[in-house]
């Protein structure tokens, strides 16, 4: 199948899934009406009779949620693909190797240490501060894991996964510690924050997250060629004239920017970073020139669908979206593990 | 021209290379021989610019290696390393095209495709161009990596080819073919430096042999000059007969059998 066609199919699916998603919920709005209402808002089409209630539901509640799902999904997909490129293996999932936990720790630390600044978490500045803090936390953790797992210039899979366990535990413990030391107000903020999911979507969260995701989505595909060279090994990539350290720093910064900010707004959604690039590689091959941008699209699509399932499966109760992604993603992780068992040197 | 001047390299207190000097002209095919730990791979890393010498200097075409940018260097020298594990299932043709990465920004030009194709044909890997790299045998993988390394400097005669055990894991036919390819590259005025373990292959294909021991250059000359029972014993600590093949006039090295008793003493059992 031509690669261009795959991009088109993914984009069309995102639009269709998006329209379906916005229509679903306690108040059902038919896809046709959703489409016309959005067209109306964009000034492309003028509707005779606007259902005010539907209008409000769509534009205040469901559309921000959809956009948040798209942004977070794209962030998780693209950063998973890029991080796997840098770590040279398809098991480097940002959640599993502790990058997301690093982001969480930093976000909780900001809330815990500086509650006065954040008396109202819902203001835009608070969101930006948290997103940026989580980005720093994710970035530091990623660099740390990379250095720990590097052996003879190549990250070792086993060390990476084990270091991930340790970092997850450490970040979890520190997060717990801060929570215990927190004052009542801080604790309220932390708890509120930790409950974060796509359900908390507002236009503010969308505005806050957008730059953190769009910048990596625009800039990361240019690193595709460099990441291919990385697959040969750091030293070999250097022999091909690549500035290895610059590539590493650029990719880690851009991908943790996307993960960190997503985590700070919706909490940890595991296995997306593993599942999405895996499917893309099956369909399009392993060339990072395509894996990276296509993972952003498929990530967005899968998260929209996962959100639809989470909201409708046992409605009116809403399942945490992480449950859905883990249900699909964890078996894929096990599958890759079993398939590559011989190749994963545990020495 | 590759010139190495009094190069010394150490990690911590261990001197891995001591006072090494030589120069190699375009068109020369040089084999580096030595026992494990003699410093062969370390020397190759210095020559490739991956490691910087502690003291001394290396220059390529009259210009110090450390004044080249990474990219300039990638146009002038190519490296085949020992271990080449590729964790993602890239296709063979994709791996070979990576050799052209220093030559294009986003998309390969027609010339890049053509050179990648020629390099694949030269190394005999074009028949599995569409196969996934991890499914190949060790010897096949090594040939694909050779194709990639050659594609990198294919149109740059006088470029430096650094090969660290290029025939490791290959069967006899592949070994002979690989060295024949390297030899033909030398004839096209490339500078070819290979670390080899097999003295007979070195005698067959190299114009010149550098023998190393404990980080020093021990012998340097044509195979006929440097391959004899004395040098072989000094370098490898094995007794061997050295014959000359009457039809090719190349040296043949035949190590003596080591008995279990001797082995016990040498291993200090």
Automatic annotation (TrEMBL), chain A:
Q: SUPFAM superfamilies in the record, alphabetically?
A: ABC transporter involved in vitamin B12 uptake, BtuC (SSF81345)
Positions of transmembrane segments: 7-29, 66-87, 94-113, 125-146, 158-181, 201-220, 251-280, 292-310, 317-338
Q: What is this protein called?
A: Iron complex transport system permease protein
Provide the alphabetized UniProt keywords.
Cell membrane, Membrane, Transmembrane, Transmembrane helix, Transport
Q: Mind giving the lineage of the organism this protein is from?
A: Bacteria, Pseudomonadati, Bacteroidota, Sphingobacteriia, Sphingobacteriales
Record organism: Mucilaginibacter lappiensis
Cell compartment(s), UniProt: Cell membrane
To which protein family does this belong? Belongs to the binding-protein-dependent transport system permease family. FecCD subfamily.
Asked if DNA repair is a keyword of the record, the answer is no
Q: Do you know which Gene3D superfamilies this protein is assigned to?
A: ABC transporter involved in vitamin B12 uptake, BtuC
Q: How does it sit in the membrane?
A: Multi-pass membrane protein
Name the principal localization, coarsely classed.
Answer: membrane
From TrEMBL, chain B:
Fetch the InterPro entries from UniProt. AAA+_ATPase, ABC_transporter-like_ATP-bd, ABC_transporter-like_CS, P-loop_NTPase
Gene Ontology molecular function: any one: ATP binding
According to the UniProt entry, where is the signal peptide? none
Tell me the keywords, alphabetical order: ATP-binding, Nucleotide-binding, Translocase, Transport
ABC transporter domain residues? 2-239
Keyword Lipid biosynthesis set for record: no
> Transmembrane region positions?
none
Q: Which domain of life is it from?
A: Bacteria
Q: Which SUPFAM superfamilies match?
A: P-loop containing nucleoside triphosphate hydrolases
Q: Which PROSITE patterns match?
A: ABC_TRANSPORTER_1, ABC_TRANSPORTER_2
Q: Could you tell me what this protein does?
A: Part of the ABC transporter complex HmuTUV involved in hemin import. Responsible for energy coupling to the transport system.
NCBIfam families, from UniProt?
PRK13548.1
Name used for this protein in its record: Iron complex transport system ATP-binding protein
Could you tell me which species this protein originates from? Mucilaginibacter lappiensis
């Amino acid at each position: 199948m031509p690669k261009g066609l795959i991009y088109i199919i993914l984009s069309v699916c995102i639009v269709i899934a998006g329209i379906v998603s916005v229509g679903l919920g306690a108040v059902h709005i038919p896809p046709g009406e959703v489409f016309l209402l959005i067209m109306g808002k964009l000034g492309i089409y003028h509707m005779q009779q606007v259902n005010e209630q539907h209008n409000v539901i769509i534009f205040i509640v469901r559309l921000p949620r959809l956009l948040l799902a798209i942004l977070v999904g794209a962030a998780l997909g693209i950063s998973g693909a890029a991080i796997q490129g840098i770590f040279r293996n398809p098991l480097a999932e940002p959640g599993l190797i502790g990058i997301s936990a690093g982001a969480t720790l930093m976000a909780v630390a900001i809330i815990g240490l500086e509650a006065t600044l954040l008396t109202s978490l819902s203001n835009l500045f608070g969101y930006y501060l948290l997103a940026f803090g989580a980005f720093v936390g994710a970035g530091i953790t990623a660099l740390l894991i990379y250095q720990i797992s590097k052996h003879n210039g190549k990250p070792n899979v086993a060390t990476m996964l084990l270091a991930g366990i340790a970092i997850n535990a450490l970040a979890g413990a520190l997060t717990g510690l801060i929570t215990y030391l927190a004052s009542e107000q801080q604790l309220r903020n932390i708890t509120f924050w930790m409950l974060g999911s796509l359900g908390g979507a507002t236009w503010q969260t969308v505005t806050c997250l957008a730059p953190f995701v769009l910048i990596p989505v625009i800039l990361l595909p240019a690193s595709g060629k460099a990441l291919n060279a990385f697959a040969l090994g750091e030293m070999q990539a250097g022999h091909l004239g690549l500035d290895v350290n610059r590539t590493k720093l650029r990719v880690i910064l851009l991908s943790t920017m996307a993960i960190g900010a997503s985590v700070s707004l919706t909490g940890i959604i595991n296995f997306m970073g593993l599942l999405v690039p895996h499917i893309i590689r099956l369909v399009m091959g392993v060339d990072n020139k395509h894996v990276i941008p296509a993972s952003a699209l498929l990530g967005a699509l899968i998260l929209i669908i996962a959100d639809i399932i989470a909201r409708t499966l046992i409605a009116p109760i809403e399942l945490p979206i992480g449950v859905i992604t883990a249900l699909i993603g964890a078996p894929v992780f096990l599958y890759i593990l079993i398939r590559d068992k011989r190749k994963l040197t545990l020495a | 021209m590759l010139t190495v001047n009094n190069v010394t390299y150490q990690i911590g207190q261990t001197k891995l290379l001591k006072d090494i000097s030589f120069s190699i002209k375009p068109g020369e095919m040089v084999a580096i021989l030595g026992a494990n730990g003699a410093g062969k791979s370390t020397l190759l890393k210095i020559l490739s610019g991956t490691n910087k010498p502690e003291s001394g200097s290396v220059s390529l075409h009259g210009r110090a290696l450390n004044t080249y940018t990474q990219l300039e260097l990638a146009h002038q020298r190519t490296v085949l390393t020992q271990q080449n594990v590729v964790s993602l299932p890239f296709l063979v043709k994709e791996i070979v095209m990576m050799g052209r990465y220093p030559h294009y920004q986003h998309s390969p030009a027609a010339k890049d495709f053509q050179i990648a194709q020629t390099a694949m044909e030269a190394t005999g890997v074009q028949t599995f161009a569409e196969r996934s790299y991890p499914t190949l045998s060790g010897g096949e993988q090594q040939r694909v990596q050779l194709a990639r390394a050659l594609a990198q400097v294919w149109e740059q005669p006088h470029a430096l080819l650094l090969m660290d055990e290029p025939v490791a894991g290959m069967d006899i036919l592949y070994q002979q073919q690989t060295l024949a390819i390297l030899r033909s590259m030398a004839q096209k005025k490339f500078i070819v430096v290979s670390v080899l373990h097999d003295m007979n292959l070195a005698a067959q294909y190299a114009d010149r042999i550098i023998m190393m021991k404990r980080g020093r250059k021990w012998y340097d000359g044509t195979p006929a000059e440097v391959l004899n029972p004395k040098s072989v014993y000094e370098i490898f600590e094995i007794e061997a007969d050295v014959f000359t093949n009457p039809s090719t006039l190349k040296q043949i090295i035949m190590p003596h059998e080591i008995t279990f008793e001797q082995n016990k003493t040498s291993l200090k059992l």
